[in-house]
TrEMBL record:
Catalytic activity: GTP + H2O = GDP + phosphate + H(+)
Residue span(s) of domain Tr-type G: 48-229
Organism: Nannospalax galili (Northern Israeli blind subterranean mole rat)
Protein name stated in the entry: GUF1 homolog, GTPase
Chain's gene name: Guf1
Pfam families given in the database record: EFG_C, GTP_EFTU, GTP_EFTU_D2, LepA_C
Alphabetized GO MF terms: GTP binding; GTPase activity; mitochondrial ribosome binding
Keyword Protein biosynthesis carried by entry: yes
Domain of life: Eukaryota
Function comment: Promotes mitochondrial protein synthesis. May act as a fidelity factor of the translation reaction, by catalyzing a one-codon backward translocation of tRNAs on improperly translocated ribosomes. Binds to mitochondrial ribosomes in a GTP-dependent manner.
Protein's membrane topology: Peripheral membrane protein
Family in the record: Belongs to the TRAFAC class translation factor GTPase superfamily. Classic translation factor GTPase family. LepA subfamily.
SUPFAM superfamilies per the UniProt record, alphabetical: EF-G C-terminal domain-like, P-loop containing nucleoside triphosphate hydrolases, Translation proteins
HAMAP family the UniProt entry points to: LepA
Keywords attached to this entry: GTP-binding, Hydrolase, Membrane, Mitochondrion, Mitochondrion inner membrane, Nucleotide-binding, Protein biosynthesis
């Protein structure tokens, strides 16, 4: 149905001759064996012996497990039972069992008397992290498209295939989990033929868990993915495709060399900032950092050059030698945020610490957009743009885990637009159509000609038996059907145009629960459409709660308001007096709940006169209060909002 991926790729070319680099076994965490007797000599890997590839798939189809097996097979890590998702290095990834950051590893592999250098990039599967996938692909000439032998093609399989297809990469289909009782690799092979137009006999059937047939994946990488086309004799041209911040060493940039050579001591220039640096260290990721003398065109590795400030190594930047300026590489399309939320320090005295933490984390996750913001209630903060709610949660969790930062998050909102009619506002904004990313700045209806809401083209893949329920769900979310096809006898692919705000919060969970987990979902940007929108405020005893201001479609205002009030009622602790929770549009109250009065006496069970015990309890109560936010005289635990935000539903 679709044309198949081409086999010719980006402009990379040829080089010198191969020889071995032997890593010396030395176990580390997760059985990693990356110690070398001496620095590997990367000149021994000519371009024709290099393959750069990514593993892409729908979430949970086994990318990281396959990466583990490839690392073991090539002797990069020890073969132990502990090797589970070795490349998922972040705490958040290991806790959630998902990949959120693409990770690179250079593997050495002997095949038919030659030693190859294989650069592997493991990528996330969830739609919120697809920006990581598209960036990773820029450093590759081919992909392993992993598909679960039981679940078959899912929504992100389709989305990721097209990212690779558009980047003109070679696609090797890998059908994984053939050990499962319900595996049906033949059926999946047919789906791959039908949906991607790839001949079934190109599919490699494996069990990444048991290691079955994984060796043939490495052979296919060598045989079916072309070496990069690069020019080692040209002056250096390196693409920064990822970067992290290390407290002691500054910025560590992951680079792919398109031209030339880079060595320790070289003077390099950032095409973006025009600043000059001296290279302190270059090397490969194996998967830990391993210094080398040099890196050559066609290779992928890391570079440290004394960049101390997080703004200095932008992802997508081109590095070149001092006095040898080059045409910068195309870089990356900037990520388009799908949801925005206010982020404020719990305590204003922590503003600067949080600012630095956000700066460092956004260096590593460049898909987050940052605007300064402030509010009367919450003080100075930021409005951050994320690619989805999971992305927002993961970013928040990383801020807490990696930078010990505690933040207040406001209700996420999608970027609405307003076409202004008020001459005063047009003058103030200097344009007629404005994008509103902060609900507090939503212009009043009397000042606009129309409001516009963002829409996305969503793909749902489901077993046929759930189609009816899914169509009903999509209709309840104001979606318009665009297409419906069978990808095999009992699997349907539906395409719908959705208002973005109808899917960002809980659409995925609803879809999963009504299809017993079988349906999958992915979406892409599809512009804007006119919509009847209203701004809804939440009041606690008449006091406005900035965290919860929401823009809603007129049709949904009542149910959303009622839902927020009910959830707030469940998460607010009872206090000495009654609390009225109201959802209000303009001056009209559309929903109301009440929390009854109650006094929590921490000393109630503390009979007798043990003063130290009483002091201890009172101190603990004071400490607890730091986690509270006062709205009027009402004390609201910080996590009450998070609970409401997480579970707020647009039904
Ligand atoms: N039975 C079986 N299970 C497998 C196989 N490969 C992976 N799994 C399991 O499938 C689950 C998901 O595997 P991962 O490797 O984390 O999948 P992933 O695609 O990297 O997931 P994300 O990074 O979250 O997108 C884990 O529980 C694995 O143990 C396989 O060949 N057979």
């Amino acid at each position: 149905m679709w044309v198949r991926a081409g086999r010719t790729l980006r402009p990379w070319a040829a080089g010198a001759h191969a020889a071995a680099v032997e890593p010396q076994a030395a176990s580390r965490a997760y059985g990693v064996v990356t110690e070398f007797k001496e620095k590997p000599d990367m000149s021994k890997f000519p371009v024709e012996d290099i393959r750069n590839f990514s593993i892409i798939a729908h979430v949970d189809h086994g990318k990281s497990t396959l990466a583990d097996r490839l690392l073991e097979l090539t002797g990069t890590i020890d073969k132990t039972k502990n090797n589970k998702q070795v490349l998922d290095k972040l705490q958040v990834e290991r806790e959630r069992g998902i990949t959120v950051k693409a990770q690179t590893a250079s593997l050495f592999y002997n095949f038919e008397g030659k030693r190859y250098l294989l650069n592997l990039i493991d990528t996330p599967g969830h739609v919120d992290f697809s920006y990581e996938v598209s960036r990773s692909l820029s450093a590759c000439q081919g992909v392993l498209l992993v598909v679960d032998a039981n679940e078959g093609i899912q929504a992100q399989t389709v989305a990721n295939f097209f990212l690779a297809f558009e980047a003109q990469l070679s696609v090797i289909p890998v059908i994984n989990k053939i050990d499962l009782k319900n595996a049906d690799p033949k059926r999946v092979e047919k789906q791959i033929e039908k949906v991607f137009d790839i001949p079934g006999d190109e599919c490699i059937k494996i069990s990444a868990k048991l290691g079955t047939n994984v060796e043939s994946v490495l052979q296919a990488v060598i045989e079916r993915i072309p070496p990069p086309k690069v020019y080692r004799k040209n002056p250096l041209r390196a693409l920064v495709f990822d970067s992290t911040f290390d407290q002691y060493r500054g910025v560590i940039a992951n680079i792919a060399l398109f031209d030339g050579v880079v060595s320790k001591g070289d003077k390099i220039v950032s095409a973006h900032t025009k600043k000059t640096y001296e290279v302190n260290e270059v090397g490969i990721l194996n998967p830990n950092e391993q210094s080398t003398h040099k890196l050559y065109a066609g290779q992928v590795g890391f570079l440290i050059a004394g960049m101390k400030d997080v703004t200095e190594a932008q992802i997508g930047d081109t590095l070149h030698l001092h006095n040898h300026p080059v045409e910068p590489l195309p870089g990356f399309k900037s990520a388009k945020p799908m949801v925005f939320a206010g982020v404020y320090p719990v305590d204003q005295s922590e503003y600067n610490t949080l600012k630095s933490a956000i700066g460092k984390l956004t260096l590593n996750d460049s898909s987050v957009t940052v605007h300064r913001d402030s509010s009367l209630a919450l003080g100075a903060g930021w409005r951050l743009g994320f690619l989805g709610l999971l992305h927002m949660e993961v970013f928040n969790q990383r801020l807490e885990q990696e930078y010990n930062a505690s933040v207040i998050l406001t209700t996420p909102t999608v970027p609405y637009k307003a076409v202004l009619s008020s001459a005063k506002l047009i003058k103030e904004y200097k344009e007629k159509e404005i994008t509103v990313i902060n609900p507090a700045q939503f212009p009043d209806k009397s000042k606009v000609t129309e409001y516009l809401e963002p829409v996305v083209l969503g793909t749902v893949i489901t077993p046929d038996e759930y189609t009816g329920k899914i169509i009903a769900l999509c209709q309840a979310r104001r979606a318009v059907q665009k297409n419906m096809i069978f990808i095999d006898q009992n699997r349907v692919m539906l395409k719908y145009l959705f208002p973005l705000n109808e899917i960002v919060v809980d659409f995925y969970d609803s879809l999963k629960s009504l299809s017993s987990g079988y349906a999958s979902f992915d979406y892409e940007d599809a512009g804007y459409q006119a919509a009847e929108l209203v701004k809804m405020d939440i009041l606690l005893n008449g006091n406005f709660v900035e965290e919860l201001v929401t823009i809603v479609h007129k049709e949904k205002a009542y149910s959303v308001g009622k839902n927020i009030c009910e959830r707030l009622k469940d998460s607010l602790p009872r206090q000495l007096f009654e609390i009225a929770i109201q959802a209000v549009i303009g001056s009209k109250v559309i929903a109301r709940e009440t929390v009854k009065a109650y006094r929590k006496n921490v000393l109630a069970k503390c009979y007798g006169g043990d003063i130290t015990r009483k002091m201890k309890l009172l101190k603990r109560q004071t400490e607890g209060k730091k986690k509270l936010r006062k709205i009027g005289n009402i004390e609201v635990p910080k996590d009450a909002f998070i609970k409401v935000l997480k579970t707020q539903s647009n039904k």
